[in-house]
């Protein structure tokens, strides 16, 4: 946390993006949103649906809370944020059910779970309430992208190990055009139940967190080594 | 971020309470508007869903009426009111469908059971469940063909005691790794068939609604029949 994000300079936009997707990722760095994460990532398709729905709510809540930040006092901010997020989620749920009913049948399970996503409240508190509207919406988008990537990856790992398929039922979520996305990687696979059940989610998440740390260490390692080399030369 | 000087009125409890109250009011208003704007459409969509499920358990060729038009309500096996959708060709009842519920591994399993007038299963489909994905969800039509084995069966075919999974000495395959789910479905279907057998006369009695206006003779006969029936019910009530 060495640079502050007061003005949306070009570097700040880039920082919001890298923070959202990698450095300050909702799951990897903040360890938030684990309830919806573990509940829905039985398949990559479910992960994608949950990720997209959460992303939409994150952008909208970032926008609204940033707009209203001059009005809301610190003392009552948390109930007001909770209220705004809950209303948004309920309206999205009703609207989808009425006008995009087929999509709602697939996503309907996930939408109420978005309320349990404390990452949305976390971003409202730590970013949207302190920044201008556009950066706040962009932060919501990038946090959503980061969350979606984790959901899809975790869903894919559990789906491949657990049932030998990838993106099963993707056509239900994305439309018939995406039927080609549905792969059966291991034909005649008997299935490995543990991966599909919640314990499998915790195990896979543990391995993913470890992998993220390893990658971070690799990325950081060369830097101290190059500096002495420059100094001697 | 630098600390912005907050106007003093904002620190008062009245402002805080007013702010929270105002937001709650706006939120409630938005939810009411949202509910009003979507309620009818959602009801319509749900009716379409039910129509689609009904058409899966009662073949189109079997009826010429709108299944959703006049359901009758009876006390179901669990004591709660149960809506029964009847398929008719002309005035003759050719089939009917109603919801049955089994207790699955992770919660209730709701099924729609379609029967013909003789009590044979025309088809059955799972409407909702919360079974383990990849394990207990093989009863969904989109996941496997398992649910189709019930077509053409009835309460005495196979005999009642064989309406169970193989593990319990019955005739039906459980799926690998899941016995509780098929057991729940079987008991739900069995319950539905018993319910039908119990109320068969009420359920398959020719519809009272007649589309064409009948001749005077028929009307008279029907009227006398009705009075007979009401007399008999009166006398039975007196008894």
TrEMBL record, chain A:
It comes from the Bacteria. It is found in: Cell inner membrane; Endomembrane system. Keywords: Cell inner membrane, Cell membrane, Electron transport, Membrane, Translocase, Transmembrane, Transmembrane helix, Transport. Its main location: membrane. GO terms for cellular component: endomembrane system; plasma membrane. Pfam families: Rnf-Nqr. Belongs to the NqrDE/RnfAE family. The complex is composed of six subunits: RnfA, RnfB, RnfC, RnfD, RnfE and RnfG. This is Ion-translocating oxidoreductase complex subunit E. It comes from Thiocapsa imhoffii. The gene is rnfE.
TrEMBL record, chain B:
Coiled coil: none annotated. InterPro entries: FMN-bd (IPR007329), Ion_transpt_RnfG/RsxG (IPR010209). One of its GO terms (biological process) is electron transport chain. It is a single-pass membrane protein. Signal peptide: none annotated. The keyword NAD does not apply. The modification FMN phosphoryl threonine is found at residue 179. Its EC number is 7.-.-.-. The keyword Cell inner membrane applies. Its main location: membrane. It holds the Pfam family FMN_bind. It is an enzyme of class 7 (translocase). It is found in: Cell inner membrane. One of its GO terms (molecular function) is electron transfer activity. Residues 104-196 form the FMN-binding domain. NCBIfam families: rnfG (TIGR01947). The complex is composed of six subunits: RnfA, RnfB, RnfC, RnfD, RnfE and RnfG. Part of a membrane-bound complex that couples electron transfer with translocation of ions across the membrane. Belongs to the RnfG family. This is Ion-translocating oxidoreductase complex subunit G. It comes from Thiocapsa imhoffii. The lineage of its organism: Bacteria, Pseudomonadati, Pseudomonadota, Gammaproteobacteria, Chromatiales. The gene is rnfG.
């Amino acid at each position: 946390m060495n640079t502050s994000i007061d003005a949306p300079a070009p570097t700040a936009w880039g920082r919001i993006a890298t923070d959202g997707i990698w450095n300050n990722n909702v799951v990897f760095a903040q360890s938030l949103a684990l309830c919806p994460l573990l509940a829905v990532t039985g398949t990559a398709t479910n992960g994608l649906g949950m990720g997209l729905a959460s992303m939409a709510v994150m952008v909208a809540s970032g926008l609204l809370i940033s707009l209203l930040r001059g009005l809301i006092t610190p003392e009552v901010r948390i109930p007001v944020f909770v209220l705004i997020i809950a209303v948004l989620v309920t309206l999205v749920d009703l609207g989808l059910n009425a006008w995009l009913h087929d999509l709602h049948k697939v996503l309907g399970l996930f939408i109420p779970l978005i309320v349990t996503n404390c990452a949305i409240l976390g971003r409202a508190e730590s970013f949207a309430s302190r920044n201008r509207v556009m950066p706040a919406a962009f932060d919501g988008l990038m946090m959503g992208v980061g969350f979606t990537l984790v959901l899809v990856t975790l869903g894919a790992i559990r789906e491949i190990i657990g049932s030998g398929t990838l993106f099963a039922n993707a056509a239900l979520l994305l439309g018939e055009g995406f039927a080609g996305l549905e792969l059966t990687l291991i034909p005649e696979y008997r299935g490995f139940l543990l991966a599909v059940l919640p314990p499998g989610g915790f195990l896979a998440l543990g391995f993913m967190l470890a992998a993220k740390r390893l990658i971070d260490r690799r990325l950081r390692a060369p830097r101290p080594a190059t500096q002495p080399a420059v100094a001697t030369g | 971020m630098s600390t912005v000087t907050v106007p003093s009125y904002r620190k008062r409890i009245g402002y805080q309470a007013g702010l929270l109250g105002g937001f709650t009011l706006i939120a409630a208003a938005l939810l009411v508007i949202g509910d009003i704007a979507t309620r009818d459409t959602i009801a319509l969509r749900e009716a379409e869903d039910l129509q689609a499920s009904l058409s899966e358990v009662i073949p189109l060729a079997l009826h010429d009426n709108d299944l959703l038009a006049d359901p009758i309500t009876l006390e179901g096996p669990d004591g709660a009111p149960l809506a029964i959708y009847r398929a008719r060709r002309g005035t003759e009842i050719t089939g009917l469908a109603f919801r049955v519920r089994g207790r699955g591994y992770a919660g209730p399993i709701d099924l729609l059971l379609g029967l013909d007038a003789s009590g044979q299963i025309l088809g059955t489909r799972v409407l909702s469940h919360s079974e383990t994905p990849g394990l207990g969800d093989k009863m969904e039509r989109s996941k496997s063909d398992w649910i189709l084995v019930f077509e053409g069966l009835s309460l005495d075919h196979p005999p009642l005691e064989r309406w169970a999974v193989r593990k319990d000495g019955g005739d039906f395959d459980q799926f690998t790794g899941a016995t509780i789910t098929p057991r729940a479905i079987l008991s739900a279907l069995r319950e539905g068939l018993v319910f039908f057998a119990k109320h068969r006369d009420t359920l398959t009695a020719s519809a009272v609604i007649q589309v064409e206006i009948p001749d005077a003779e028929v009307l008279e006969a029907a009227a006398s029949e009705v009075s007979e029936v009401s007399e008999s019910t009166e006398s039975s009530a007196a008894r």
